[in-house]
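Dear colleagues,

As part of the handover before I leave the project, I'm documenting each prediction I ran so the next person doesn't have to rerun anything. This entry is a single chain, and its sequence is reproduced below.
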Amino acid sequence: MHKKIIIAITCSVFMALFSSAHANTTLLQLETKFKDNFPETALSTLNNADIAEDELTASERARLYFLYGQAYEKARQLELAIESYDKGIAEVESLPISDILIDSYLERSFAAYLQTNDPAAYCVDRRKALEYARQHDNQELLAKTLTQNAYCYYTATTVNEGIALLDEAMVIVDKGEQLDVHRKAVIYNATGSLYRIAGLHKRAYDNFNKAYETWKTVDDKEDMFNMQHNMISSAIKSGDWDNAKVNIAAQFTLAEQAPEFKDFYFFAYLNAGRVALGTFDYSLAVSHLEQAVAFKDTTQERYFVTSSHLFLALAYMRTGEVDKAANMAAIFKQDTRFPANMTSMALTADAILAFDNRDYLSSVNTLLKIIDEEREQNKIIINNKVIEAALDHNAKLAEFENMLLANKLELKELSLKAATDKERISELKLSIYFLVAVVLLAAIIFLLHSRKVFMGRAQTDYLTGIANRGYTFVAGDKILEKAIKKQQSVSVIIFDIDNFKSINDQYGHHVGDLTIQATTKRIQRLLKEQDLIGRIGGEEFLIILPDTSGEEAAAISERIRSAVASQPFQFDEIKLELTISLGIAVLHEQATTLSELVIEADQALYKAKFSGKNKVYLAWQRA
């Protein structure tokens, strides 16, 4: 009898453990699927998943609710998204601080942002997430939380605090092993937003464009579209109508390419209408904005729906259709939850309604009040602390890129272009201008003086003066991309100095360094100007030969091998006879990236070493 009871209990425990393990495995599979490629049928995928919530731990249930929140958020069912995040937070808030708790707060804030575009509404959760993140041992998540909180400093008087958070985030990321595409793009986006608040609209545009190009590398169409939206707003502020029109065309193209995002056309028409207003094409503005209002039900971003009515009201006023303008202004005023900090928009609606009621004095005074408020805002923008914080952050952003992003040639783009910031002159026109100009000029002089040294360090190997590893791979990727487009051949050679360790052991590292330097100089003389040579390891080098076939690369490699072996090297009283071994790979259908070619060439180099050294070996001869 007792044996049967024990067996029954054992079976029950086993089944419970099996069910829990099965549920957790299914949850992990869903998380991986959503991370790698968010499915169009996200909600049905979740609903059809074989997961029993009562078999999950509190943390696992929070993760499941988080996935539901993500799915609802993508579908723009924002109330349901917030409700899902609420459930997840309730599950784990009483437990020790965890990643899922912080992420749930951040995503709930994003859903609130989409609903309201009001920092007062969505920043409460971001501040709570930061409070938790500072107590939690996850530096990557802390960097993400700091970046998200930077958006919460949305006034000219606090923008320097937002910049400080971005600087802190970059320092944290600096310590990590790598920087993912999303984190890089978000830092650019946040930087652009803060620059826009500081009135540096051209610099804001540049950073939004960098975010767009970064998300483009992973074909993230939603974020690409959002960055086009931000670029349009900055272009409008700086009167850069040519770029604004290019960005609008890009939005319409993305709307055609990604029909799953139903609200793309709403935003494309809204921005087209805004640009038409700015370029005085009022009939076109009316046409575009009427289209935007017609598409308003495709989005739940209430702030922009409400704004579309005000822009259309302005367009109607410009075409003399006062009754229609007043109707749109009245609809705008019905949104009692419109962000309170957007006072100029509310005053514009008041002026239109007063004009419709023939209260012309009130209408004019309201418009004058808008001008007065903008003048005060400009005074705050030119605050010296704000400018200094923006300039200091720009320098740190340049250093950040140099350290982490494979030394890409973006430093030149990140140099301060203060001398071209004409919008600062035209918009502000304040007596303090002279002081600001001096600050900007000093920054430019400093950057111009240090740029050559800075970029040289970013690209050059300190010992040999040739390209370093980071620059070699970045420039090499570009050579391959160009060759593939032009359907040209590219050859890759990896070589190293034979028995180099014995040189260091016998003569010391000083002679080893001299050996590397002398070998490099001798080989450089045999390469063409367009050929790229870089040091990628201690005594290991990579040569990339554009428009060069395998046979040609083999001939070049043999000349290089012979040049090193035929004549000894003399270092004071020390005479060394050196040899090198070389491996060659050539661009072909199965190897179309630099990393793939390097692997093949490295395997060929190994074969050359194994076969006795002082040899050239071709990758296709390995078999």
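Confidence is low (pLDDT under 50) at residues 1-20, 402-431, 433-439. DSSP finds 27 helices and seven strands in the chain.

All the best with the project,
I.
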